[in-house]
Design goal:
By secondary structure, this protein is α/β, with parallel strands linked by helices. The chain has 14 helices and 17 strands. It starts with a strand and ends with a strand. The structure holds L-homoserine.
């Protein structure tokens, strides 16, 4: 019998308990042992549950229990999760987590402790919910030099954008619906401002390129400025707007990494990924493009990845299963100003001024646009050059309403 503990009985934690209990027999066949939940840490009471006797409010009941070999941390946030996870690893327990904020901010430190203690620290559920991506990057694609990873990494914003694109639903109504369905973070600004996607691309970049990338070091934009007008122009351009986390491997091992909304051509494999689904494109030098697709949020998809990690910990109990990357001070991240992209611009003013400043542009149209509204796409240029041209454009009397990167995906 393998005793496990779950820290947090929210959306994901209750899903982990549900899968461990309902799939008890099939999991037993896979690990050749019973997996038993010994303790569940939560400050709330759940008297109605068949397993209400497992609950504790005291973390010491888990960390001091030598019978508990694997702990699933599904509380979210860095405090107190970091302290609890660190102490569990130091006590010689393997830990699995769905907590992307924890891994993105503290991954290097926790991985080093796990290595020293010869236990596992796994986090498949932290990126892409139920989609396998951490294990494939670390195992199946390991023979590749990864050139780029680009992903729709946040289900809530993809759900919101899909509702805006297909039903002209307002941003606010779509966000409420996503919250009701349990997709959004406790604080949904982490979704709509891009921070959740930022944490996930940091984890993928750290794993793929071997050095920790911290969220504070990367340019992050959300979708709060995206309007139904932009959605309509994107459609007429031949694409859709998606929130993308992107990392490109540049010369000298530098990373061009950011999170931003992007216009994605309808021919891209990422363009048709809708609703709460996530899609992650990995460009390997040997494989070419590989795309991972599935439900990126929600109770059971995320719990599925957590339970898979628990099983992996049990299978590798004697040896420890390592994921690893080195710590880094941010010197591996290219300044965002040097990042190169073609851009979409929507503004009010005179299109001739835009042509004068940007040279060759492609004009966009939409039905019922106000007479003084202009929209166009530019050639590729660095963010620095683009910003300088935008200032010049504004000096000529054009008022810029929104700008969006154009993805080459
Ligand atoms: N809030 C996250 C999302 C949950 O919408 O993708 C899964 O990480």
């Amino acid at each position: 019998m393998i005793q496990v503990a779950i820290m947090g009985h929210g959306v994901v934690g209750s899903g982990v308990a549900e899968i461990l209990l309902t799939h008890k027999n099939s999991l037993k066949k896979k690990v050749h042992n019973d997996i038993s939940i010994k303790k569940i840490l939560d400050l709330r009471e759940f008297p109605e549950l068949s397993y209400s006797d497992k609950f504790t409010k005291d973390f010491n009941d888990i960390v001091n229990d030598e019978e508990i070999k694997v702990v699933a941390e599904v509380m979210g946030g860095v405090n107190p999760a970091f302290d609890f996870v660190k102490r569990c690893l130091e006590a010689g327990k393997s830990v699995v987590t769905s907590n992307k904020e924890l891994v993105a901010k503290k991954g290097a430190e926790l991985l080093a402790i796990a290595k020293e203690k010869n236990v596992s620290f796994l986090f498949e559920a932290s990126v892409g919910g139920g989609i396998p991506i951490i294990r494939p990057l670390n195992n199946c694609l390991v023979a590749n030099e990864v050139d780029e990873i680009a992903g729709i990494l946040n289900g809530t914003t993809n759900f919101i954008l899909t509702k805006m694109i297909t039903e002209s639903m307002s941003f606010k109504d779509a966000l409420s619906l996503a919250q009701q369905l349990g997709y959004a973070e406790r604080d949904p600004s982490a979704d709509v401002e891009g921070h959740d996607a930022c944490r996930k691309i940091c984890i993928l970049a750290s794993l793929a390129f071997g050095k920790h990338v911290y969220p504070d070091n990367i340019h992050t934009e959300g979708i709060t400025n995206i309007s139904l007008e932009d959605v309509e122009y994107a459609n007429n351009w031949g694409g859709v707007i998606k929130l993308i986390g992107d990392v490109k491997h540049m010369p000298d091992n530098m990373l061009d990494i950011f999170v931003a909304p992007m216009l994605i051509n309808n021919e891209s494999q990422l363009s048709g990924i809708d609703d709460v689904f996530n899609g992650i494109l990995v460009r390997g030098d040997a494989t070419g493009d590989v795309v991972f697709y599935g439900k990126g949020a929600g109770k059971l998809p995320t719990a599925s990845a957590v339970v898979a990690d628990i099983v992996d910990c049990i299978k590798n109990m004697s040896t420890g299963k390592y994921l690893f990357w080195e710590d880094c001070d941010g010197s591996n991240v290219m300044p965002y100003e040097e990042s190169v992209s073609a851009m979409y611009v929507r503004a009010t003013g005179d299109i001739k001024s835009a042509e004068k400043v940007f040279g060759e542009i492609s004009k966009l149209t939409r039905k019922k646009a106000p007479d003084n509204e202009i929209a166009f796409t530019t050639d590729e240029m660095s963010v620095k050059k683009f910003n300088a041209k935008l200032s010049e454009l504004e000096k000529s009397g054009v008022k810029v309403i929104n700008t969006i990167r154009i993805g080459d995906l």
